[in-house]
Design brief:
mainly alpha, 2 helices
Length: about 40
């Protein structure tokens, strides 16, 4: 996950990073929730 974030930070313009990280955090949180719920 960290490797993907580093790659995206490099590819995405600085202006888009805050918005992207916000969306990324939401997606990550949802994925974690689903993973925990599936156990």
């Amino acid at each position: 996950a960290l490797r993907l974030e580093e790659q995206f930070r490099i590819k995405i313009p600085d202006d888009a990073i805050p918005r992207f990280l916000t969306v990324g955090d939401i997606v990550h949180g949802v994925n974690e929730h689903l993973a925990l719920a599936a156990q």
